Amino acid sequence: MKSKSFFFLLFLHFTFSGFSQNITSPEMSTRYIVISYPDMQRFFPVRSNRSSQYIKERGIDSFRVIRTKINKRGKEKQLKYWHQYNFNNEGEITHFEGSKKGKLSSYSYDYLQGVKWNREIVYKKKGKLKRRETMIENFDGAQYSRMVYVQNIDGDTVSKTILNSMDTTTMTGTDYFYKKGKLNYKWFNEYYPNRSKKRTTVYNKKGKEKFVWDYQCKDEGVEIKKHKDTSTVCVSKEYDKDSILTEVHHYVGEKGNLIKTVLKYNKKHQMILYKRVKGSNEIPMSEYTYTFASNDTILTSSHSKQYWKGKLGYEYFKEFDVKGDITSNIRKNFKRGKLVSETNVGYRYDAFGRPAKKIATDVVDGTKQVWYFTYR
C-alpha cells in the first residue's frame, strides 16, 4: 500500500533534516538552531544517546584527557591539548575547560527546570563571560514549540528563534527569527486537516515573500516545473510483506535540482537505512545502514558513508554490545575515491571499567593517536 505523506521536521531529527530542505541557506538554517551539549561519544566507547547513563553507571564525576601522537618510528609526542569535564549525579555535563594549542577556554552548562531538553550554556574565556545560550522547549501531545536565544556579555539578546505550535482552528503556525532585536525572517506554515504540512512561506525583514516550500505532492512521473523561489517536497510511503516501511523523499529546488532520500524502518520503526542521492543519475551523497538483533530493537552494527562530488570521502564501521557500548570502531578516509588511511580505535580500561587509554591506530602507515584519561 502506497500513500502520499509529509515529513515534519523536529530538532530530534535535525541530523537528517537536510534532505527535505536546504538548511544551509540562512532563511532555513536559522529556523533549526538548537543548543546541544558535548557528545561524550568522541571519548567513550558508547552511543551518544547512552553517554549520560554510561558516565552514571561508572560513577564518573570528572575526568581529564590529554592527547599524544606516535609516529612511524614509535616516538611519542604530547600535543598542546587537554580537556576536562565535570558531571552531575545524572551523568550530565556541567562544566568544561580545556586548552588547544595553548588557548584556554571554559564553558558551564545548566539544565533548566521543566522539560528534559531545556538547557543553557554559559561561555567563558579566561574566566570572563562571553556569551549565554538558552533553549526552552514545550511538548503538548502532538504539539511542539521551541525558543532559542543568545545573549552577549552585556545581557543583550543577540538573536532569538521562535518556533510556535500549530493553531488547530486555522491550521496555521508562524515562526520567527530576530537578530539584535529586529525581525529578520518569518515563516508562515500551512497544514492540512490531518496536520500534515501543506506549505511554508518565508518572508524577509521587510515583510516581502522570499521563498516558498510546497509540500503538495505531484503524481509520480509528472515533471515538476521550475518556479522561481519555490521548492517542492514530496514523500511516498510503502510497506512490504515483512512490514518494512520505505519512505522516499523527493525535493525539487527552485532551479530544478533534485535530491532524493530513501529511508527504511523495521517492524519496530527503527531506522535501518538512510540514503541520499542527487540528480537524475542519482549521484551518491551519503548512506547510513543499521543492523539490529532479531528483536528489531537492539542495534548491533552501523555502517556510514559520506561522498564528496560523487566519490567516497570516508566511511565508518561500528559494532555494539547489548548495552549499546561500542566494541569495534573503524574509520576509512578516501581521497578521490582511493583509500588513504584506515583507523582502528581501541580502549584500555582501569579497575573500575573506565577508559584509561583510547588508541587510534592507522593501519596504513602505522601512526597512532593516544588519549590518556585521569579521573577525580
Commentary on this structure:
The chain has two helices and 24 strands. The chain has a 23-stranded mixed beta barrel. The longest helix has 7 residues. 3% of the residues lie in helices and 56% in strands. By secondary structure, it is mostly beta strands. Among the domains are: 66 residues, no CATH class; 103 residues, no CATH class.
Please render the helix and strand layout as text.
Layout: E1 2-5, H1 26-29, H2 51-57, E2 62-70, E3 76-87, E4 93-100, E5 103-111, E6 119-125, E7 128-140, E8 143-152, E9 157-163, E10 172-179, E11 182-191, E12 197-203, E13 209-214, E14 230-239, E15 245-252, E16 258-265, E17 271-278, E18 283-292, E19 299-308, E20 311-320, E21 326-335, E22 338-349, E23 355-362, E24 368-375
Parallel strand pairs: 13-14
Antiparallel strand pairs: 1-14, 2-3, 2-24, 3-4, 4-5, 5-6, 6-7, 7-8, 8-9, 9-10, 10-11, 11-12, 12-13, 14-15, 15-16, 16-17, 17-18, 18-19, 19-20, 20-21, 21-22, 22-23, 23-24
Structure characteristics:
mainly beta; globular; 2 helices; 23-stranded mixed beta barrel; single chain; disordered N terminus; 376 residues; 3% helix
What's the β-strand tally? 24
Instruction: Give the helix tally.
Output: 2
Quaternary organization: single chain
Q: Could you tell me the radius of gyration in angstroms?
A: 23 Å
* Largest β sheet strand count, sense and barrel closure: 23 strands, mixed, barrel
Helix content: under 10%
**Low-confidence parts lasting 5 or more residues at pLDDT below 50?**
1-24, 219-227
Distance between the termini: 57 Å
The chain-level mean pLDDT equals: 84
Strand content: over 45%
Structural class: mainly beta
